[in-house]
Amino acid sequence: MDSSRIYEYVMEPSEIREFCLAVYVEQLKCRKGTGVRLLLILAAELLFIPIPEVAALTVLVLALMLLAVGIYNYAVTVKLLRGQQGSLWIEGGKLKARRRDYSEISCRHIGLIRRTKHLLLLGYMQGVRRPAWFVIPLRVFGDGQELDLFLAMLRTPQEQTQEEYIDRNSQQNAEAEFLRFSYRLDGERWVRLQKGAADLINGGSLGKTARIYGMIIWGCVMAAILTGAVCLAAETFHWLFACYGLTMAVLMILRIYCRDPEKTIRKQLKSPEIAARVCGLWQVSLAENGISVTMPADFTDMFAWTSLAWLLETEEAFYLFHRDKKHFVMIAKESFLSWDQVHLFHRICADHGIQKIAPKKARYVPGWLVGLLFGLFLFVCAGILMVKIFLDSRSAPGSVCGDTTGACRWRNSLHRRRDLRWKKVQRRPMGYERLLTERARLFFPVKEIPSVLAG
Q1: Is the pLDDT at 447 greater than 60, yes or no?
Q2: Could you tell me if residue 223 is inside a domain?
Q3: Alpha helices (H) along 297-366
Q4: Is the pLDDT reported for residue 386 higher than 90?
Q5: Where residue 56 sits, what CATH number does that domain have?
């Protein structure tokens, strides 16, 4: 038996919440390194800034950040799954799923199988530390035996050969197919095409994306955190503290959001699974019901025409972008045989409501410039601190600064406490004063003994 029955379902609100929670937990497990770094930052704060309020503020903000990310993911998932009929089945050694669009993947690539109270989650690594999931409610299975049989088919698939698979797909799509393109990609070429898509998104060709809102939100949050932590440590507020927090937040935003993505994309090829999935023969077919993309390692995605919204052109490829501004179909220009085929491709896309727009150039901040700005900022902070220490050291030991804000107020309190200590010493008995004088002679030359103790 090489196929299962087709399981159709509509997820309930409680199941969607359970799915979001399970996926979020799995995502945090994949980001253990980030958690370790956050703990190291918290330990450094407790070591170098031993103020409980600062540590409490950091923990509170981290908790709010995790909560905000979870709420955002839940809102996106609810919009995607609520009221949508889905179907999932196994056929020919492949796991197939259909909701708005259609996807199929070889069962041997399903490396993550998770079971919650009401759901079965089947996942694979879509990128480095980035799993993708298929979900099906357990209620669609008649009993536990049917579930065990489904999992056995998933773990020990009876796969078709590549020739049988291609012949079968060609027979199914031959009648309704408009165009078919084939091209091969190696690692370097795949990096360039992926970077081309990232440039289109980051350059604003598709309008404002979640990346812009993320920059604004996280920038404001980081500026507030850093300013609040410094103010708590100094027990006062000064405009320099606000400048410090804002500058550090801007540098972090430049470091996270405004760097060239090529290095990050190239890192993904270090994973053998991803390299096997992207290097090889790609096939793209335009049919009446949508666009089908067959990738190496038996991955297939099919997008309905209603799911695609924009067509953009770069020097190396054409890109058809999904309405979510994240997924896309790329077609290398070398796969076109003639200009007539290019014109036919544009006409088919226009007939199905896909808008062709001009690309905008993406601009990135060089990594060396961010490092230089950070070093310059630390140098300026150190200079301001040294000037402040020098000005404080020039003030008389018993003088009190007239300014009641900032560092002067802190220095005034130190002067008051020191004067109180001298007054207590002056009120002590004369015998005790001589004892202190004799002990002071052991540590100070005679000329340097304080007048209060020398009597």
Answers
A1: no
A2: no
A3: 339-351
A4: no
A5: 2.30.29
pLDDT at 419: 57
**Edge-to-edge strand order for the sheet containing 102-106?**
7-10, 85-91, 94-98, 102-106, 299-303, 290-295, 280-287, 177-185
End residue of a domain, out of 159, 184, 211: 159
Helix (H) or strand (E) holding 391, with range, is helix 367-394
Is residue 408 scored above 60 in pLDDT? no
In a domain, 287, yes or no: no
User: In this structure, are residues 283 and 180 in contact, taking their beta carbons and an 8 Å threshold?
Assistant: yes
pLDDT of residue 2: 60
Q: For residue 258, is pLDDT > 70?
A: yes
Query: How would you list the strands of the sheet with 130-137, edge to edge?
Result: 112-115, 119-127, 130-137
- Residue 304 maps to a domain: no
H or E stretch at 210: helix 210-234
3-state secondary structure at position 294:
strand
Query: Where do we find the tokens 């200590």?
Result: 421
Look at the block and give the residue holding tokens 């020097």: 315
User: What number of other Cβ atoms are within 10 A of residue 390's Cβ?
Assistant: 9
**How is residue 147 written in tokens?**
């579930």
Residue 271 covered by a domain: no
